[in-house]
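Exercise 7b. Backbone tokens:
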């Protein structure tokens, strides 16, 4: 058979070929010819498959790999599905963003199911071992973190930005003393409407989106601030640098770091802008990097802020907090000392310095330095009796020292000073559990926190954790999901997903194996 005839067979397909075979030599060779014809047909099938694959576009091949992966996924064969989705990602042209996104989502779903299968088994092991085997617990924790990270990556990208409570916003701005954008409006800067209310001249010298945004800040009308800042920026107005910084700050507050970063970058690069604005932008970008677990970039920004504005107390205060997170306590104390030197009236810096010294002494198991730090707290609350943070940090130290009654008094002082601060109610609720094992009182205080601020993710997380310990897993999952929707960073969301998945796994293990963990 010539090469030309073979090509013809491939193109016309099997029916014609069978006719030809029936016509040529069927009677002479009988069954042998039938065997050879079947083998030849198999070769042609393979040739056809190869030909079609050869002429498919990369996108078509990627889609085919995805479809194959979908079949494996439906069959519960998640490892094979992951291989197919990975192949689809590698074949897909980079400009096909939508298709790539789908392939990545498919792979993420397969990873999630695979990890979940592993985690259900690990959870069963942990329950059977009464959560006493450290190796099993570490394995469970590792799988949980992987699951949480994968889920948070997808969820955080598509989350609905949410303005935090007024109390949270006020607490945030109170941590800055050299922040131009959080200073009250001067009389001459007020708008028409405000001047009319005060019986002043109603003529406005300038129409500024930034000044309107500042006015909304004073009125706690926070939802309008970003749009007013945008008007100032688009008009390239007189307060453009201030508007960029204020808009970036509120982007950070609603958890939209991707939108905040370009604004912060622009302010930092404006060499003719007020140095206080640039330093403040560096502090906020540095804090953002720390939230994103990029300590090197964070440290770099804080150091740059100290270089361009060495007399700015905020730089040292916030860098001190960074050093505590990095477990660099001695350097943190040095920064707090510099902040206090520049701002002797900084109650926050003095309270946080005491807490840093206390943690260093407590973790080092040094009784004498612990006593010195505790005495330092007494001095701070005596010197700054209206600083709620001082009482709160002292209460945490007192709780460590098993001085529960006094800690409870400190939380009461916090509540007197800041009755709208939901976090204090949560801490006081946890204290009731640790001190008196009073579950009802603890839950009552945490419920009060949610009533005061229904955006307090810490309250939902804490209540979820307590419900897990009580064995109310469905309620716990509900609480964790509420906290997830309020998370202010991807890292925080990943942690909350880990808690939620742990609760979910326990419910599945209970259904599947009849195993239940110990409860309170």
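Sequence design result:
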């Amino acid at each position: 058979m010539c090469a030309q005839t073979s090509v013809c067979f491939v193109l016309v397909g099997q029916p014609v070929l069978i006719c030809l075979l029936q016509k040529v030599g069927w009677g002479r060779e009988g069954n042998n010819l039938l065997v050879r014809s079947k083998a030849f047909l198999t070769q042609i099938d393979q040739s056809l498959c190869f030909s079609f694959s050869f002429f498919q576009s990369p996108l078509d091949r990627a889609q085919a790999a995805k479809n194959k992966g979908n079949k494996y996924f439906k069959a519960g064969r998640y490892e094979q599905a992951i291989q197919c989705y990975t192949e689809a990602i590698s074949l897909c042209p980079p400009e096909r963003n939508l298709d790539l996104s789908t392939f990545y989502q498919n792979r993420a779903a397969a990873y999630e199911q695979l990890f979940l299968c592993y985690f259900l088994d690990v959870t069963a092991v942990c329950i059977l071992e009464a959560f006493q085997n450290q190796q099993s617990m570490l394995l469970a924790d590792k799988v949980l973190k992987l699951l949480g990270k994968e889920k948070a990556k997808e969820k955080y990208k598509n989350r609905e930005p949410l303005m935090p409570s007024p109390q949270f916003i006020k607490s945030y701005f109170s941590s800055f003393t050299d922040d131009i954008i959080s200073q009250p409006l001067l009389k001459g800067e007020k708008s028409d409407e405000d001047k009319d209310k005060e019986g002043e001249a109603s003529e406005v010298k300038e129409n500024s989106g930034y000044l309107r945004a500042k006015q909304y800040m004073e009125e706690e009308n926070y939802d309008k601030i970003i749009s007013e800042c945008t008007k100032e920026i688009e008009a390239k107005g007189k307060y453009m640098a201030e508007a960029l910084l204020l808009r970036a700050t509120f982007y950070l507050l609603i958890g939209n770091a991707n939108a905040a970063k370009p604004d912060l970058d622009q302010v930092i690069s404006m060499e003719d802008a007020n140095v206080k604005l640039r330093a403040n932008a560096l502090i906020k970008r540095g804090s953002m990097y720390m939230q994103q677990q990029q300590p090197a970039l964070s440290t770099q920004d804080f150091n740059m802020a100290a270089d361009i504005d060495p007399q700015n107390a905020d730089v040292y205060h916030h860098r001190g907090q960074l050093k505590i997170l990095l477990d660099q306590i001695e350097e943190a104390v040095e920064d707090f000392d510099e902040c206090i030197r520049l701002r002797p009236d900084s109650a926050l810096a003095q309270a946080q310095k005491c807490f840093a010294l206390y943690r260093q002494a407590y973790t080092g198991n040094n009784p004498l330095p612990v006593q010195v730090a505790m005495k330092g707290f007494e001095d701070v609350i005596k010197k700054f009796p209206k600083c709620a943070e001082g009482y709160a940090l002292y209460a945490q130290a007192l709780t460590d020292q098993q001085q529960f009654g006094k800690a409870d008094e400190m939380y009461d002082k916090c509540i007197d000073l800041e009755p709208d601060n939901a976090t204090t109610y949560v801490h006081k609720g946890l204290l009731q559990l640790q001190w008196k094992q009073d579950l009802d009182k603890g839950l009552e205080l945490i419920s009060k926190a949610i009533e005061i601020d229904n955006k307090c993710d810490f309250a939902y997380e804490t209540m979820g954790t307590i419900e897990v310990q009580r064995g109310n897993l469905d309620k716990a999952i509900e609480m964790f999901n509420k906290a997830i929707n309020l998370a202010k960073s991807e890292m925080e969301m990943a942690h909350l997903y880990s808690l939620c998945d742990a609760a979910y796994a326990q419910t599945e293990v209970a259904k599947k194996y009849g195993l239940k963990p110990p409860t309170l």
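Instructor comment: Residues 3-53 form one domain. The CA atoms of residues 64 and 88 lie 8 Å apart.
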